[in-house]
Amino acid sequence: MSEIVLVIGKIFLIVGLAFDLLGCIGLVRLPDVYNRLQASTKCVTLGTCFILFGTFLLSDFLWKSILAIVFIVMSSPTGAHAIAHAAHRSGIKLWEKSVVDKLKEDKK
User: Fold this and answer.
1) What is the pTM (predicted TM-score) of this model?
2) Residue (of 60, 48, 49) closest to 6 by Cα position
3) Residue-wise pLDDT tens digits, 33-87
4) Contact 55, 86 (CB under 8 A)
5) Exposed, middle or buried by CB within 10 Å (0-12, 13-18, 19+), for 50?
6) Helix (H, G, I), strand (E, B), or coil: what is residue 100?
7) pLDDT reading at 20 higher than 90
8) How many independent structural domains does the chain possess?
9) Structural domain harbouring 32
10) Would you list the DSSP string of 21-70?
């Protein structure tokens, strides 16, 4: 395997770890369930995909990594949407500084 592929794979791993770290910090620091879902869906999904792609490059093109990326990209937004919709239906309030509640407006 060429040296450039190894370097690119390591860069993908580092960037993925940074995104995952930011997503985990967002889960702890953000004020309500809706903002936390935003952090987990965007940062952690992208970070995990970067880590898996780095693994794909470093392990002589292991195709399981690509299949895992496809599964994560398809299932993570769907799961986050289902959790957010269930939270809204069960009456969990938005953060007091939230500006717009489009789902509440659409129900009217």
Assistant:
1) 0.80
2) 60
3) 888 888 888 888 999 999 999 999 888 777 888 899 999 999 998 999 899 889 8
4) no
5) buried
6) coil
7) yes
8) 1
9) 3-107
10) HHHHHHHHHSSSHHHHHHHIIIIIHHHHHHHHHHHHHHTT--HHHHHHHH
